[in-house]
Amino acid sequence: MEFSSVNTLCFHLISSAFQRCRLSEQICRLSVILNSSSSSRHPSVQISISDTGIGSCLKEFQDLKFSWGGITENWDGMLRVNTTSISDTEVYNYQISLKENRSSRRINRLPSHQKNGAKFSGTEVLLSFVESLDILLAGVHSFLQKMLILRIPNIAIQLVAEDCDVPGSRYEKVFLANKSMQSPILALNLEHLKSGFEQYILTHGNSLNSECSSCFPSWEHLKVGSGRACCTENELVMEAVIVISDISKDDNTCLRESGDKTEVLYFKDFSPSTIPQSSMKAMKSVHWRKYGLNLVGIAQQDGCALLEWENLPKDTHIYIVLHSYHQQYPVSSEKLFDALL
């Protein structure tokens, strides 16, 4: 996987932490901590992304690829990884340089720490780069808000940001995912996606702290449909949720950014992603007229797709979310660690 900015790499690392928590099937904590020093000549931000999910497979870091055009002064390319699995007796510490060629990249093993009989698992990834704390905080906050649509069960998220040179600048936000979820921990991901997407719509794209009672006085205004397909050859899963609301615009005082068009959100491997051309083509090929709809245009904007309809009833609005992911995820093992060193 290739990244063109440190920010997108950070979002990927956060997504990987979500994945490890999801696969642990236990109550987990995911923390993103941003520390900055504004008094230095080149203010930089140190970011720590930690989770208490299953231990990491180092191959996920070995395969990372970074495009270095024009940003060599912002980041030295170093990642620090601390990880352990529940069966390990130590916390293993590593250092990885993404400036090295991926085919010949070596992972430097640092001194490990004994767990002294304690039973826990988790991973922490650290990196430092030149960036505005406010810009990075806004991006991470928005990313976490979208991640909540997936409603991955039993994950508490902590976001902390602080300028060490400014007293009282500490910001802390805790996201309690699934606080109203009634499904068991092993429920299908699709059920969580449906619930999270409904909540996303009811709070106008997570811009509100509670459901908008003026637009949605009751859940009966939402008609929800969903589907799931799986390719057995590569274990690729595609899930889709479509929500239709029927609300009088005379009673609707809130403005939608997409207007009367349908915004299609896309997730790939449990992470917000730019919708691919293959999905754009697939939506064009749907026989919408069979469902009483006439698609007259489709465009891409800010990573999402916008669908434009002809003669859509004035009180009707359509929302769509797609999620494509692989069922398998690399599992940590000491043998794999040794093979990569």
Tell me about this structure.
It is built from six helices and 16 strands. With about 350 residues, the chain is an alpha+beta fold. It folds into two domains: about 180 residues, Histidine kinase-like ATPase, C-terminal domain (Heat Shock Protein 90, 2-Layer Sandwich), CATH 3.30.565; about 140 residues, no CATH class. It has an eight-stranded mixed sheet, with helices on one face. The chain has a six-stranded mixed sheet with strand order 11-12-16-13-15-14, with helices on one face. Strands 1-4 form a two-stranded parallel sheet. Helix 1 packs parallel to helix 3. It is globular and about 65 Å long. It comes from Acacia crassicarpa. One of its GO terms (molecular function) is protein-macromolecule adaptor activity. InterPro entries: MTOPVIB_plant (IPR034566).
